[in-house]
Structures are given as structure tokens and as C-alpha cells.
Design a protein that fits this description.
The chain has 11 helices and no strands. By secondary structure, the chain is mostly helical. The longest helix is centred in the N-terminal third of the chain and has 15 residues.
């Protein structure tokens, strides 16, 4: 018995050799209970092609751009639909973007970093505003810990900053921040 990949190869070979529509052969195989590997990389690509009403042979006349099959981009190309050029809109983490906006900084102020395809971090914003030294070690083990500390006004708090974090190299993690918050609320 042939596996799905072999079955697809057999159908393609028969279709090409005997000039039989591949869709008809696939329908015969499917009606007998066999499952075929989809020639589409995603259900959306398949749906869009089927909605176009064009024969599969038109699409299959050129190679797919993805190893899993034809993508939405391939389908759009075959249908003559131009893909809009998208500009990356996410240039900074949410916290970094908020901090940048507070300090009247925009995407343009970080063009050198963005050209290197790096997403702007809170640390990059602080360096740009002079709040953090260029090579200063990071104090937080994760952005979540830093955000929680920032939201609760712990950044710059002398009592908090005297504590040593429990993560690697003494960095603060979320639990450290939560534990400190419990002590000041009690």
C-alpha cells in the first residue's frame, strides 16, 4: 500500500503520462477512501483558489514557493493579485514604545537600531534618554518583572534596589518583585 506522498506522486505521473485531469484522478482516489496530501500550504490558500473557479492545472503549472505546497502569495500571484508591500509596524516592545512616547521619542530616533532589524527594548529607550548607561548590567530577569516593578513605582526605590534578585547574576524576577510588594503593603 502506498503512503500519501507516494500516492500523490503516482497520481501526478498518471496525469502527466496519460493527459488525464489531475483533479479527476484525485476525486477517484478520494472516493475510494484514500487521503491525499494537500497541494496547498494553508486552508486559506486552497479556499481562495477554489473561490476563483479556475482549474488547478493553472496553478500547478508553476512550482510552489513553500515546501508544504502553494501559499496564499502563490495563489494571489497566479490570480494576478499584487501583494501590498507591508512595512513593519511593530518597532518596539509595548513598554519601550510607551516609554519612548513619554519622552517624545519616535521610531525615527532609533533608525540605526531599526536598520539592524532589531526591535527596540526598554533598555534602548533608557539609553537614548540618558536614564541608563550604555554598558550597564540589566537588573531584571524578564520584561514582565521590569514592567511589574515599573507599574508599582519600584524603579529607583532605594529599598528595592538594595535587594539582590534571586535569578542569575542577582537579577530580579517576577516573584522577587511580588514578594517586595507584599512587604511594603504589610
Amino acid at each position: 500500500m502506498a503512503n500519501r506522498q507516494q500516492l500523490n506522486t503516482i497520481i501526478t505521473t498518471i496525469s502527466e503520462r496519460y493527459n488525464i485531469d489531475i483533479a479527476k484522478l484525485e476525486a477517484i482516489v478520494a472516493s475510494n477512501g484514500s487521503k491525499l496530501i494537500s497541494k496547498f500550504a494553508s486552508p486559506i490558500a486552497k479556499q481562495k483558489w477554489e473561490e476563483s473557479g479556475k482549474a488547478n492545472s493553472e496553478l500547478f503549472s508553476f512550482p510552489s514557493s513553500h515546501k508544504k505546497g502553494y501559499t496564499l502569495k502563490d495563489v494571489n500571484l497566479a490570480l494576478g493579485i499584487e501583494e501590498p508591500i507591508r512595512k513593519a509596524s511593530v518597532w518596539a516592545s509595548k513598554v519601550a514604545k510607551e516609554e519612548a512616547e513619554k519622552n517624545d521619542l519616535s521610531e525615527n530616533d532609533f533608525s540605526e537600531l531599526l536598520n539592524s532589524m532589531k526591535k527596540i527594548s526598554i533598555s534602548d529607550v533608557r539609553k537614548a534618554t540618558g536614564q541608563e548607561e550604555e554598558n550597564a548590567p540589566k537588573k531584571f530577569a524578564s520584561p514582565w518583572a521590569e514592567k511589574l516593578a515599573q507599574e508599582n513605582g519600584l524603579i529607583g526605590n532605594e529599598n528595592f534596589e538594595r535587594l539582590k534578585g534571586s535569578s542569575k547574576k542577582g537579577k530580579y524576577n517576577v516573584e522577587d518583585v511580588k514578594n517586595f510588594l507584599k512587604t511594603i503593603k504589610d
